[in-house]
Amino acid sequence: MSILRFDDLKAVPWKNGLGVTREIAVVPAGATMGDFLWRVSIADVDTASPFSCFPGIDRTIVLLEGDGFMMTLDGKREHALTTPLAPFDFPGEARVDVTLAGGATRDFNVMVRRGVRRGCVDVVHGPVTMTVAEDAVLLHVARGEVHVDGQVCLQGDSFVAPRHAELPRGATALVVVVSEA
């Protein structure tokens, strides 16, 4: 398919207007925040702003850059999103408050409509040559440089519908798999 360069992604306000996100892919194409089946984006978090609420959506978040933050879900459950490249799943309707662990952070987000789709994020570290699962919808280069279907993808780039990837030592990719629920 094609490479989506990070620098070409348009920054738009979060659903709640308290932060900025860059949409990488959404299905169906042109879907709104209320009717997507699945969505992948990269968000910048630079204040202790609450997350947007997405009822009926399963979410996965992965810290890409920065010190991360403490997430408090529904006022009681806490999760430290401070380990880079460690996916964390949570329900989209949860009230999520954030306390920054340091400065600004950047995170990778996958959202799928519960009961219709299931999604997961697999973290792949190089060196490895792999055939990508058929239900993988996207590969994001989190670290280094990755060759995807014969094309060079740089850190921050994503590749839609990847089939073959070569990750040298030091490279890390996030592979997003979405399947029927």
Break the fold down into its secondary structure elements and pairings.
Blueprint: E1 3-4, E2 11-13, E3 20-27, E4 38-45, E5 57-65, E6 69-73, E7 77-81, E8 88-91, E9 96-100, E10 105-113, E11 117-125, E12 128-131, E13 136-143, E14 145-148, E15 151-154, E16 158-160, E17 164-167, E18 172-180
Describe the structure using short key phrases:
181 residues; mainly beta; Jelly Rolls; 2 domains; 6-stranded antiparallel sheet; 5-stranded antiparallel sheet
Describe this structure in words.
- By secondary structure, the chain is mainly β.
- It folds into two domains: 3-113, Sandwich (Jelly Rolls), CATH 2.60.120; 117-180, Clp1, DNA binding domain (Jelly Rolls).
- It contains no helices and 18 strands.
- The strands form four sheets. Strands 2-3-4-10-5-8 form a six-stranded antiparallel beta sheet, with no helix packed on it.
- The two termini are 25 Å apart.
- The model has no long low-confidence stretch (mean pLDDT 94).
Q: Please compute the radius of gyration using only Cα atoms.
A: 16 Å
Quantity of strands, as a count? 18
User: What's the CATH H-level superfamily name of the largest domain?
Assistant: Jelly Rolls
Strand order of the largest sheet: 2-3-4-10-5-8
Ranges where pLDDT stays below 50 over 5 or more residues in a row are none
**Which CATH class of the largest domain is shown?**
Mainly Beta
Strand content: over 45%
Q: Count of helical segments? A: 0
Q: Can you give the mean pLDDT?
A: 94
Structural class: mainly beta
Major sheet:
6 strands, antiparallel
How many separate domains?
A: 2
Q: How much helix, percentage-wise, in residues?
A: under 10%
> What is the N-to-C succession of helices and strands?
EEEEEEEEEEEEEEEEEE
Distance between the termini: 25 Å
Specify the oligomeric state.
single chain
**CATH topology name of the largest domain:** Jelly Rolls
Principal-axes geometry comes out as globular
CATH architecture of the largest domain: Sandwich
